[in-house]
Amino acid sequence: MNESKQYKYLKWISYVLWAILLLTFVLVTRFLVTTANGDLPSFADLENPSYDEASIIYDTNGESFGKYYVENRELITYEQLSPHVLNSLLATEDIRFFKHSGIDIKALLRVAFKTVLLRQESSGGGSTISQQLAKLLYKRSSFKNMSKFQRAFALVQTKVKEWITAVRLEKSYTKEEIIAMYLNKFEFINGAHGIQAAAQTYFGVNQKNLSVPQAALLVGMLKNPSLYNPLRFPENATVRRNVVLNQLEKYFEVENSAELDSVRQQTVDMTKFNRAAHDVGPAPYFRSELTKWLKNLFDSENIKKGDGSDYNIYTDGLKIYTTIDLRYQVHAEAAVAEHMKWLQDRYWQVWRNRNPWTYDADAEQRKIRKLTLDRKLKESERYLQLHDRFLGPIKLEAQKNYNDIPLNENVIKVLIDIYNKKISWNHAISKNLLPEGLEGDYKNLLKGKTVFKTIKSQYEALQKEFKVVFNTKIPMQVFDYSEAGFKEVEMSPLDSVKYHNQHLQTSLLAVHPRTGHIKAWVGGSGFNYFKYDHVNSKRQVGSTIKPFVYATAISLMGISPCQTYEDIQYTIAPGSDNFLVDKEWSPSNANGEFTGNFYNLYQGLFYSKNSITVRLVKEMGNVDVIRELLDNVGISKTAELPDGRYVIPRVPSICLGAIDLSLKEMAGAYTTFANDGIYTEPIFISRIEDKSGKIIYTGLPKSRRAINSLYNGVMVDMLKNNVHGGYGLGLESQAGGKTGTTNDYADGWFMSITPDLVTGVWSGGDDKWIRFLSLDDGQGFVMARPIVQKFLKAVENDTLINFNKEAEFPSPPKGFLEFIDCDKFKQMSVEEEQNLSKLNQREDEFSEEFSDELIEFEDEFGDEIKVDTTKAEIKKDTIDQNR
């Protein structure tokens, strides 16, 4: 090649190089300009960084009793910052912080050299504290579903955004302010936002009182709070804490540094951990349910902010005004605690030396009970930690390689059965044992063998460890009806789950019958240990439904309350009238006996005679009229169960309470009786305001007439008759009520009415086999009625509440007195005499709960049968002729 050609060749190469260089410059410049003008925080954002604002819950008197927040934080200044935290932060995250202007070029070069050239994974981080604060001020784009090139480009763009924002921060704030902002803004998970909340949550101390190891742990979490979560991954957190301690000793003098050597050998101590949550303070069950309700409200009512975006109860500073009256709430919680302690003690006595998971259970029942217990064991926090320890890492690897396929324990067990050829793929798919549409991914997982074999071996190791851990006694705290709410015991985790599962649960709801305002809400026996709310849970209602059957007979069928019916067994046969029965239905009374005596409706309801109730239903000819009335009092006749069956089926057994309803539904239905026949829907929100005070929601109850005033007056009189005279609740207020007890004493109910308050209580076990074994212990009169009685007495005696004890039920219209002019007396029947003879032989085990002059019975669906042993007659409440 001659010199001219060589020169020409080199000249073209130089042009190409210059062109590439120029193009690169243009592209980089455009990239930087585009990034700088993109979704970066503005100077206004940097000058006034936003903190999520808590929403506050108020009671009807304007007293706050709860908050919703994402960021449980208490802001601190740089001057308030613990030196241990500051030094640990600088030593670990940014030792040159006070020397650079937001970007540490030296650190970036170090990372690039060690990572790219030397291939060292532990080359340290290049992000400054200013850059880390920048990350918190805007959301990173998701890299999911991106190609490697797209991910690399997005990552570079993100880093450039951080650099630009970090430089802006350095211009807007002092170094000290940046450190304080960063530690205040950071989320330490587990409900702790900011260093102060983190210190209180994880160690129960103010951040300025943190020890060196404690400060090191929290600073260590800054790198990745989920990975170094000391609750879920204590080993990871321990390793990271020790890294911080090493860095601290490298750059700063540490007092008592010799002690740190022993600290490094110890796993992080989380015994002082205490998560701030809505279960602290009054009405925890209500606040928990309110959370769910609020989340649905904004969607269902299409309530939006002015800019069209959605409200967030955790960040938007809403003011939520409820109908709860904390004065009522205090008395409700006290009544529940007092009686449930007594009831639980009685339960332990009854079940001494008995096992509820095997008692009176056939093979199928034992299997059901065992599966239920196993499920509860594996839902415990202790088991979940074991699961994460054994299966967490390998599950992450499998999901990374196999399209994030679900790998819960049920799926793993099915895959192991397929691998061991116990079941086929076809069987697993046809029985829906695996998630739909993922068969190919699961097959690939099994073909890979190495990963799946690890999953299989780890799962088997987990089950062995599970048996050892859950059968080994250890010191622990368990629920107790003490002031502290717990007691210290030595117990195995298995026995702990059984112990808590055997605690009887309860719920109480108090509603103003005219406004529908819920004044008090108790959802269980103790929220710290039993989170499930029983106000909205569905349980069989027993005889509490009977007043609506009687109301239907009187108001729609024109049956007089003085009409008498014989106490004999009645049968509804297939094809008779419009009843949907496929075989003869002949329910008996509680004791399986029929007296042959005649009872009017007052006496039939008082004695809760199943025979009389069935006879009334036969008179009606169908149950549609009952379903219609229930629909009018807020219990939907069209509501369906998940399997498509009606909640209120078109079968006659509903008249005896064979339907599952919630306490909230029952309390709403009983407002009808207390409100002159007008149903009022229970509500718990009066209004919601945004942070500027604008009302964005107002609670208005649905209301409609369900029962004619005259006939409703009759029902009120019957309910008053159930608790009259010596059988009463001991109240100064006018009151009526109805108990309910279900088969096998699984549920005890009491529904009460006063002119200004409807109060309902349910009690029972979460599982149907957690129950009493006799009517004496398991009836609604024993399980639920005393709670209502204690609550209402406390409300009456509280002068601050100003409860109107002189209030009266609405006066029924003309003709009422003539309509109820039944015989006032009835001689004691043979049945009563037999019952009295039997009762005289029984030692009274409930002297604190019952009058010495009274003896109570109740049929299997609910009403107490009370015999005044000083009189040989049944009395109906005397009507005040001058009312």
Question: How would you describe what is shown here?
Answer:
The protein folds into 5 domains: 3-37; 51-71 and 282-322, no CATH class; 73-264, Penicillin binding protein transpeptidase fold (Orthogonal Bundle), CATH 1.10.3810.10; 355-481, no CATH class; 509-685 and 702-868, DD-peptidase/beta-lactamase superfamily (Beta-lactamase), CATH 3.40.710. It is built from 31 helices and 20 strands. Mean pLDDT is 84; it is low at 119-124, 824-830 and 836-883.
SSE blueprint:
Layout: H1 3-36, H2 43-47, E1 55-58, E2 64-68, H3 83-93, H4 105-117, H5 129-136, H6 148-172, H7 175-185, H8 195-203, H9 212-221, H10 234-251, H11 257-264, H12 284-300, E3 319-322, H13 326-350, H14 363-378, H15 381-401, H16 409-419, H17 425-430, H18 439-448, H19 450-470, E4 474-479, E5 486-491, H20 493-501, E6 505-511, E7 518-522, E8 539-540, H21 546-555, E9 564-566, E10 598-600, H22 601-607, H23 610-620, H24 624-632, E11 660-661, H25 663-674, E12 678-680, E13 685-689, E14 695-698, E15 703-705, H26 709-722, E16 736-741, E17 747-754, E18 757-764, H27 775-778, H28 780-783, H29 785-797, H30 816-819, H31 830-840, E19 854-858, E20 864-868
Parallel strand pairs: 1-3
Antiparallel strand pairs: 1-2, 3-13, 4-5, 6-7, 6-18, 8-11, 9-10, 12-15, 13-14, 16-17, 17-18, 19-20
Helix pairs in contact: 1-6, 3-9, 3-10, 5-6, 5-7, 9-10, 13-29, 15-19, 18-19, 21-23, 21-26, 22-26
Tell me, briefly, the overall form.
elongated
Unreliable residue stretches: 119-124, 824-830, 836-883
Number of strands: 20
Q: In total, how many domains does the architecture comprise? A: 5
Sheet with the most strands: spatial strand order: 2-1-3-13-14
Strand content: 5-15%
Cα end-to-end separation: 128 Å
CATH class of the largest domain: Alpha Beta
CATH architectural category of the largest domain: 3-Layer(aba) Sandwich
The main sheet comes to:
5 strands, mixed
Helix content bin: 40-55%
**Structural class of the helix and strand makeup?**
alpha+beta
Name given to the CATH homologous superfamily of the largest domain: DD-peptidase/beta-lactamase superfamily
Number of contiguous helices: 31
Gyration radius from CA atoms, angstroms: 35 Å
**CATH topology (level 3) name of the largest domain:** Beta-lactamase
Residue-averaged pLDDT: 84
